[in-house]
Amino acid sequence: MEDTPLASLSLTHVHYNPGDPISYLCAWLALVPQGLCVVYATLIWSNREIEILLMFAGQMACEALNWCLKRYIKEERPLEMHGKGYGMPSSHAQFVTFFSVTLTLFLLFRHQPHPTETHTPYSFFQRLVLSVLALVSAAAVAISRIYLSYHTPKQVMVGCAAGAVFALFWFSVTAYLRRSGWVEWALDTYIARLLRVRDLVIQEDLVDSGWARWEERRVNRQHLPGKKNA
């Protein structure tokens, strides 16, 4: 009986030119979507914020849309590409564009941080700078797909357009869910309360989460009787 040939897990299998530093950088940029999924999972588990849950749900819906578009259009990848699957539109470009545009919309139009005793939130200008950095980073990932010959320029442009349009659509959907009270209703359900899902990131900074309570506890410990003599 012959041994079964080994298969390659193509999730992180990226072809690049080892003699080209730019190609090497592009290979790392190709891993950004996987890295963002890790960020999503970490934030959801550690913060239980419904806004992040909604953004992740939109990200997965955007991926489903890309899967459908590829199988409907059925356009092949560039001839120089060694991988498999259809290329129109670019899933990487669509993924990072959705993320960066959604983050930009949140930072500029939905996030209204309030200052606390322990934290001064980012100003609108600082949030604008973060948004520009996110968009530039998404553009770098998209361009890297062309440089590595995984997609044609048209496939990347369509992927960016699809990601941006779906981000605008999803932001409108979540805005409606908030205005109509569906988000508040979901937060009051048994499962949401069991999992301790909350909705604080609209007005609070994730960095400041719990910090004020920690500072108060630390100050109280320092003023306990006998603490100075310990």
UniProtKB/TrEMBL annotation:
Report the catalytic activity: a di-trans,poly-cis-dolichyl diphosphate + H2O = a di-trans,poly-cis-dolichyl phosphate + phosphate + H(+)
Family annotation (InterPro entries): Dolichyldiphosphatase_PAP2, PAP2/HPO, PAP2/HPO_sf
What UniProt keywords are attached to this protein's entry?
Answer: Endoplasmic reticulum, Hydrolase, Membrane, Transmembrane, Transmembrane helix
Q: Which residues form the Phosphatidic acid phosphatase type 2/haloperoxidase domain?
A: 52-171
Topology term for the membrane: Multi-pass membrane protein
This protein's major location comes to: endoplasmic reticulum
Q: Which family does it belong to?
A: Belongs to the dolichyldiphosphatase family.
Function, in words: Required for efficient N-glycosylation. Necessary for maintaining optimal levels of dolichol-linked oligosaccharides. Hydrolyzes dolichyl pyrophosphate at a very high rate and dolichyl monophosphate at a much lower rate. Does not act on phosphatidate.
Which protein is depicted? Dolichyldiphosphatase
- The organism named in the record is Delitschia confertaspora ATCC 74209
